[in-house]
Amino acid sequence: MHTVFVKDGVRGRVGQAGPLNRARIVRAAMRVVERDGVEVLTMRRLADEIGTAPMSLYRHVADKREVLMELLEAVSRQITGRRLPASPDPRRRLLDTVTVVHDVLEGNRWVVQAVLAVEELPPSALHLSEHMFAAMREAGLDERAAAVAHTAIWHYTWGHVFFGHLSATSARTYDQQEPAGRDGYEELAHVAPAMRELMTRDVFREGLEAMVDGFLAR
Amino acid sequence: MHTVFVKDGVRGRVGQAGPLNRARIVRAAMRVVERDGVEVLTMRRLADEIGTAPMSLYRHVADKREVLMELLEAVSRQITGRRLPASPDPRRRLLDTVTVVHDVLEGNRWVVQAVLAVEELPPSALHLSEHMFAAMREAGLDERAAAVAHTAIWHYTWGHVFFGHLSATSARTYDQQEPAGRDGYEELAHVAPAMRELMTRDVFREGLEAMVDGFLAR
DNA sequence: ACCTGAACACCGTTCAAGT
DNA sequence: ACCTGAACACCGTTCAAGT
Questions:
Q1: Which range has the worst mean pLDDT, A17-21, A118-122, B104-108, B188-192?
Q2: Is the pLDDT at A73 greater than 80, yes or no?
Q3: Rounded distance between C-alpha atoms, residue A213 and residue A97, angstroms
Q4: Phi-psi domain of A119 (left: phi exceeds 0; alpha: psi -120 through 50; beta: other)
Q5: Which of A55, B56, B135, B218 could join B90 in a cystine, given CB atoms 3.0 to 4.6 angstroms apart?
Q6: Is residue A40 pLDDT above 70, yes or no?
Q7: Contact yes or no for A75/A104 (Cβ under 8 A)
Q8: Which of the residues B106, B132, B166 would you substitute to probe the A interface, choosing the one with the greatest number of A C-beta atoms within 10 Å?
């Protein structure tokens, strides 16, 4: 295990400061997840990171799910904490808000896997929906249209972040197969250069604008 | 383990017919996954379903990933095998094609989790992209626009299937909190009835149409 | 040739015991 | 009061041995 030492008459472990508590657990979990990814976050590994025994964690959190939910809350507050986009143009404000969410998720891919594991969004994510609905209403959507658009936009955003690297993989798969005109794949051969070009930049915003404009045009 | 019996002079196990092979493994895996979900599909459980030892599977498949990939291929061929939508109107054809994919995925939620685990689409899924690209070209999109739309549509579709039940959960979360006018959530209170109404039907097609029309309008 | 039991290096979590 | 070792019921997979 870890080296045990004595300092100021207090028995402690390497990297440890003060008694174990929920905040310290969450901070350590965030460190592990940002450094090594969410699939590496196990209760045993987390305990190791803190320098304690796996079972000690259970005095402060009910289970692993609760740890993940705390991480999601932290990210959610990271978004809603700073001022949300406030452009006077509601269309612009909606696009900017969703883009902020996208950018944060893109920078923290583990979030989507955590959401999948927890199967729930953290409470403070409602702030984002509130902000989006205000913009949609101001842009002229009625309640029903706004509800549909809200759902569609979220799904697009989740899909984009999560399947982004999968799209890249699939593109590579196609590339590895014959470059041009393989029987039955003439269309794909035709758009292949364009698809390759797409891989180099993030096209989230373009799809988002198309979708939002589609809703606004009805 | 399983009861061993002798029949026709051949030593066998309950539910077993003939020697172990890849096709029989895949069929058993499909049964498990459709009955109990993909999270229940373990090599041990799969062996149990067939009535063999876990290690016997490894003579016919390299690893669990390969089993999942075979399942994905089966579903993909289930879509591309039957005739794909062929409406003369390309917009309609595109919408119908994606809707077929959505419906199959909706009926087999485990597919998305399998895709996440495998991190790749089965080769035959390229048929669908081919079909989509042909429709998009005929509808007047250039290569670049088609590539962007293709990516956006896929992401929306994945997001919809996978986060569909999550949206439902989140909506319930909001419902359980105060029904109306909780401080700072006036907009949400306002659209809550519309959102509840949405839960009762599938609104995938509506979001898809908005997105496609948004792309066609550029 | 084909199959499989034991074992390895993992999980999350319970429970009884330590200080 | 707070922490933790041993144990349970799991994983995917390797390896050596069985028939």
A1: A17-21
A2: yes
A3: 15
A4: left
A5: B135
A6: yes
A7: yes
A8: B166
Whose tokens are 């908005």? That residue is B210
Q: Chain B residues with CB inside 8 Å of A80's CB?
A: none
Phi, psi (degrees; rounded to nearest 5) at A73: -60, -40
pLDDT exceeds cutoff 80 at B36: yes
**Residue A52 C-beta-side C-alpha neighbours within 13 Å:** 21
pLDDT band at A162 (very low <50, low <70, confident <90, very high): confident
Residues 60-89 in B having a C-beta less than 7 A from any atom of strand C are: 60
How far, in Å, CA of A41 to CA of A61, rounded? Answer: 15
The answer to whether the CB atoms of A188 and B133 lie below 8 A apart is yes
Indicate whether this model's pTM tops 0.90: no
Which B residues 130-169 touch A at CB under 8 Å? Answer: 130, 133-134, 137, 143-144, 146-152, 154-160, 162-167, 169
What chain B residue is nearest to A133 in terms of C-alpha separation?
B187
- From residue B81, alpha-carbon distances to B65, B78, B186 in Å are 23, 5, 49
**Residue A96: CA count within 13 A, CB half-sphere:** 13
CB A162 within 8 A of CB B158: yes
Q: Using CA atoms, how far apart are residues A129 and A148, in angstroms rounded to an integer?
A: 12
Higher pLDDT, B201 or A135: A135
Q: What is the pLDDT of residues B161-182, one digit of tens each?
A: 888 767 666 666 656 555 455 6
Spanning CA of B95 to C1' of D10, the rounded length in angstroms is 44
Residue B189 contacts by C-beta under 8 Å, 6 or more apart in sequence?
B179, B180, B181, B182
Of A157, A159, A214, the CB nearest to B213: A214
Q: Note the pLDDT tens digit of each residue in B91-138.
A: 999 999 999 999 999 988 899 889 988 989 999 999 999 999 999 999
Q: What is the 3-state secondary structure (H, E, C) of chain A?
A: CCCEEEECCEEEECCCCCCCCHHHHHHHHHHHHHHHCHHHCCHHHHHHHHCCCHHHHHHCCCCHHHHHHHHHHHHHHHHHHCCCCCCCCHHHHHHHHHHHHHHHHHHCCHHHHHHHHHCCCCHHHHHHHHHHHHHHHHCCCCHHHHHHHHHHHHHHHHHHHHHHHHHHHHHHHHHHCCCCCCCCCHHHHHHHHHHHHHHCCCCHHHHHHHHHHHHHCC
Nucleotide nearest to A47 (CA to C1'): D4
